[in-house]
Write a structure and sequence with these properties.
Blueprint (H helix, E strand, L loop, with lengths): L1 E6 L7 H17 L4 E4 L16 H16 L5 E9 L8 E9 L2 E7 L24 E3 L2 E7 L7 H5 L14 H7 L4 E5 L8 H16 L3 E4 L2 E4 L2 E4 L3 E3 L5 E4 L6 E6 L13 H19 L5 E4 L4 H14 L4 E5 L7 H14 L2 E4 L3 H15 L6 H22 L2 E4 L3 H6 L12 E2 L6 H11 L8 H5 L19 H13 L4 H6 L4 H13 L1 H5 L32
Parallel strand pairs: 1-2, 2-3, 7-8, 8-9, 15-16, 15-18, 16-17, 18-19
Antiparallel strand pairs: 1-14, 3-4, 4-5, 6-7, 9-12, 10-11, 12-13
């Protein structure tokens, strides 16, 4: 069967715009001889629609748009993800559904059976799962149409995979049920968010499904950024022997036609981590700004590596002419920081401004002299500088309509090494899920052909430059050690005792864990951040702010 993988970039809630994309891709696929055109999960609404589903008109409008889409599909058959109404008297109000369209009408509605409710997923809040599943028939072939999570419960695969402790999450296996019912071909429509390294994991899972059931498989993912989530595409098709026979491009729209009976094997395209992460962040930033109506970006350029990487991402996302980089030196700013900031701006080709903060800093100091009399200078005075910079950047954002992006990395966000209403000001935290050591790797990858990020920004000791001769390591452990602890404590949910038992210094581990727990209140007030790890600070990590759990030191 000639099947088209319709990998598109949808905007949540843009029903008419999404419909136009779907129909355009459908007609192009038909012109290339496709017999079936497959689109991703919730293609009509965009994913995830979240509480838009609770607007009374939204689902009705979605179904009406789906009807118009179906009416213009008179050549090849199609599978389109949408939101259906739960017509049962009990249960959640909606269904995560796929429409099987043939001859200009919806011939069958398929409902998602396994509803993820972990990390960033909250589908049990809205959707009722399918009780039963059955294949649909096209041209004498029976298709096992599944929706995203339905295919992620292959027990043999997870038994040997430590990411989920070797344990399937669900009692059911919809793919197995469909194959037992006589399905000849497995089709999976997905909205599978990007996580660093997921390309290989996803490929291996799908190959394991094919190997187990001995049926060809077509998997269609969406691409693009929607809020914190980034979708990498990488749609794939496998023959009945488990060999990859087609793969869509990563991080962009694509339309691939594959003949499941005659295609030759291809090699999995999985770029290095730095390249994959770079393109993910650029796409996420571009789509967040564009879908929110911003054409330009503004950010502070300190001369350090974090703002340098954020600036490079910004220039790639919206074009250098649409980026304003701002140096805001204080009395503590080093000459090399100021020159590195200017050199970066010149290398990127962005508009560069210098706004010294010394007059404002002095004015604030003078105003607070009577109140602060008899106290020693500390973080209160230091943070005034960061907050002055935040005010200036927000003023530029308001005046020129550019979205302000923050430049804090995950290591800083974890430990609270950032200032509320200062360097945390912004509309998007573009690198807030990227640990410090990966920032260095990204910088070197960006410089792979020629120097874009100044060498000094990479080699000098990182510093907030809020007091004389300050370095980050005055307050934090070395970043390589910090990032190891952070990954274990936040992403792998290890206890402090487990981390210490693994060889890390007890004093450092306890201090880092305490910082992570205490600074939840800061992270709750941060702008949304692009998710690129298995566990980001954001909607997928729901820690209480006012809590008193303290891990006992003797815990094993």
């Amino acid at each position: 069967m000639r099947i088209a993988l319709g990998q598109l970039n949808y905007t949540v809630g843009d029903l008419e715009g999404n419909a136009a994309k779907i129909l355009d891709a459908y007609h192009r696929a038909c012109a290339r001889g496709a017999e079936l055109v497959v689109f991703s999960e919730l293609a009509v609404t965009g994913y995830p629609p979240r509480d838009l589903l609770l607007k009374r008109s939204f689902v009705n409008d979605t179904k009406a748009v789906l009807g118009r889409i179906a009416g213009q599909m008179n050549a090849a058959a199609a599978i389109v993800g949408y939101v259906d109404v739960n017509e049962e008297k009990a249960g959640r109000p909606f269904r995560n559904a796929a429409a099987f369209i043939e001859g200009g009408a919806v011939r069958k509605r398929i409902w998602k059976a396994l509803l993820p409710t972990y990390d960033v997923f909250d589908e049990d809040r809205y959707f009722e799962p399918a009780d039963t599943v059955e294949p649909v028939t096209l041209g004498g072939k029976r298709l096992a149409v599944t929706i995203c999570e339905d295919i992620w419960n292959q027990e043999a695969f997870w038994r040997g995979n430590q990411d989920r402790s070797g344990q399937p999450l669900y009692q059911r296996d919809p793919v197995g049920e469909l194959c037992a019912a006589g399905a000849d071909l497995i089709v999976n429509i997905s909205a599978s968010p990007y996580v660093l390294g997921k390309e290989r994991l996803r490929h291996d899972l799908l190959a394991a499904v094919v190997e187990h059931h001995r049926r060809p498989l077509v998997y269609v993912n969406q691409t693009g950024g929607n809020d914190e989530l980034i979708f990498d595409g990488n749609s794939m098709a496998f023959d009945a022997q488990g060999r990859l026979i087609a793969q869509s491009r990563a991080f962009e729209e694509d339309l691939v036609i594959v003949d499941t009976a005659a295609a030759a094997p291809v090699h999995l395209r999985a770029p290095c981590e730095e390249e994959s992460l770079y393109h993910a962040l650029v796409l996420g930033l571009r789509d967040y700004a564009g879908k929110c109506g911003f054409k330009g970006l503004v950010l502070g350029l300190s001369g350090g590596i974090d703002s340098a990487v954020a600036g490079a991402l910004a220039a790639a996302a919206v074009g250098p002419r649409n980026v304003i980089g701002v140096s805001m030196p204080s009395r503590f700013s080093s000459d090399h920081s100021k020159s590195d900031a200017e050199l970066l701006a010149n290398n990127l080709g962005v508009r560069y401004l210098t706004i010294p903060i010394e007059p404002a800093h002095k004015a604030f100091g003078d105003m607070l002299v009577p109140v602060f009399a008899g106290t020693k200078p500390d973080a209160a005075e230091e943070n005034i500088q960061a907050r002055i910079r935040g005010v200036l950047l927000m003023a530029l954002s308001n005046k020129f309509g550019h979205m302000l992006i923050t430049t804090g990395n995950k290591s800083e966000m974890a430990t609270g090494y950032c200032t509320l209403y200062g360097d945390m000001c912004g509309g998007l935290a573009v690198i807030s899920d990227v640990p410090k050591m990966m920032i260095y790797r990204l910088a070197r990858w960006i410089n792979r052909d020629h120097e874009i990020i100044p060498a000094g920004s990479i080699t000098k000791p990182p510093s907030a430059e809020l007091r004389p001769n300050q370095t980050d390591q005055d307050s934090l452990p070395p970043y390589d050690q910090l990032d190891r602890i952070l990954k274990a404590y936040v992403e792998e949910h290890s206890s402090a005792a487990d981390i210490i038992a693994g060889g890390e210094d007890e004093r450092v581990v306890r201090d880092v864990a305490r910082r992570i727990d205490l600074n939840e209140y800061k992270r709750k007030q941060a702008p949304p951040g692009l998710k690129v790890s298995g566990k980001a600070f954001g909607i997928g990590r729901r820690m209480p702010i006012a809590q008193r759990y303290v891990e006992k030191k003797h815990e094993a």
